[in-house]
Design goal:
This protein has helices at residues 43-50, 92-102, 108-117, 131-143, 161-176, 189-192, 212-217, 261-267, 282-301, and strands at residues 5-14, 17-27, 32-36, 58-63, 66-67, 77-80, 149-153, 180-185, 197-202, 205-211, 220-227, 242-248, 251-257, 272-278. With 302 residues, the protein is of the alpha/beta class. The chain has a six-stranded mixed sheet with strand order 6-7-8-3-9-10, with helices on both faces. Keywords: Antibiotic resistance, ATP-binding, Nucleotide-binding, Transport.
Length: 302
């Protein structure tokens, strides 16, 4: 299976500053890839290199099977930049019509459909649009030609929660149509429900690439069980993956690393009347990677 986006040894210096360090990345056809990390980690630099806005110091990248300098791939990409410059007296609708014509023609009904879904008023001059409404126009121009590859840099900035949910639905629909999505974000929750895999970048280096399902399976959960009668602590001591165990009468609290199978089987020997499982979000999981990376750097420097 040929990767839609592939990089090898991709490195970028801005003068003496290292912005991206030896990036190796492969994004599969038809997947949503979440590219995650704090601001300044190297996400936007990666995207600009893929789009040939800037050139690498070393390394290589291919997009849709071609080199990044191949102009023929431009029409097959939908791009939302992190900093969207929409100014002037031109109305948003006229701007989108112009972009549609440049791309060789886009069904105007598609523009209207996306505007309705995102609750975007296209009659307003772009210079008077709020940040959130500019973001909506940017999303429309990225999605309207139904590109094979969507590259979205911080796509939900300025959007209210309802519009964010509609945007995530649009991402799911793109994937269902066989299209590929690269979605950069520092807000982990916004990619949690749509990404198939996530890459974590820190200080220009790829820390990890993981399946979201695998991350969740390894996640740490806080579990609380309530029984109809007191239970013995020894029935739960020594179970694999169970720590921080507290048993007080008919109540049990613990932390579960990974699968809760052993705990559930032990609890099934008694009558459970209530269970609370605090599911971690990806942010909690990823903090583990960052702390481990810090520890590795400290050991290397010792």
């Amino acid at each position: 299976m040929t990767a839609v986006v592939e990089t090898e040894g991709l490195t970028k210096f801005y003068g003496p500053k290292l912005a991206l360090d030896d990036l190796a990345l492969a994004i599969r056809p038809g997947e949503v890839f979440g590219y995650l990390g704090p601001n300044g980690a190297g996400k936007t630099t990666t995207i600009r290199l893929l789009l040939d806005v800037i050139r690498p110091t070393s390394g290589r990248a291919t997009v849709l099977g071609a080199g990044t300098r191949d102009a023929r791939i431009r029409a097959r990409i939908g791009y939302l930049p992190g900093e969207l410059a929409l100014e002037g007296r031109v109305r948003a609708r006229a701007y989108l019509d112009f972009v549609a014509d440049v791309r060789g023609g886009v069904n105007r009904g598609r523009i209207d459909e996306l505007a309705e879904r995102l609750d975007a008023d296209l009659s307003v001059p772009m210079g008077r649009l709020s940040k959130g409404n500019k973001q909506k126009v940017g999303l429309i121009q990225a999605f309207m030609h139904e590109p094979e590859l969507l590259i979205l840099d911080e796509p939900t900035t300025g959007l209210d929660p309802l519009v964010q949910q509609e945007f995530l639905s649009m991402v799911r629909e793109a994937r269902a149509s066989g299209h590929t999505v690269l979605m950069s974000s520092h807000v982990l929750a916004e990619v949690e429900h749509v990404a198939d895999r996530v890459g974590i970048v820190r200080s220009g280096r790829m820390v990890a690439v993981e399946d979201v399902a695998a991350l969740r399976e390894r996640a740490v959960r806080r579990v609380e069980l309530h029984f109809d009668a007191p239970v013995p602590r020894e029935a739960f001591e020594g179970l694999p993956g169970i720590r921080d165990l507290t048993v007080e009468g008919a109540s049990l609290r613990c932390t579960v690393d990974g699968r809760p199978d052993a705990l559930i089987k032990a609890a099934a020997r008694f009558t459970v009347v209530h269970m609370v499982s605090a599911e971690p979000d990806l942010e909690e999981i990823f903090l583990t990677y960052y702390s481990e990376e810090e520890a590795a750097h400290a050991r290397a420097g010792a």
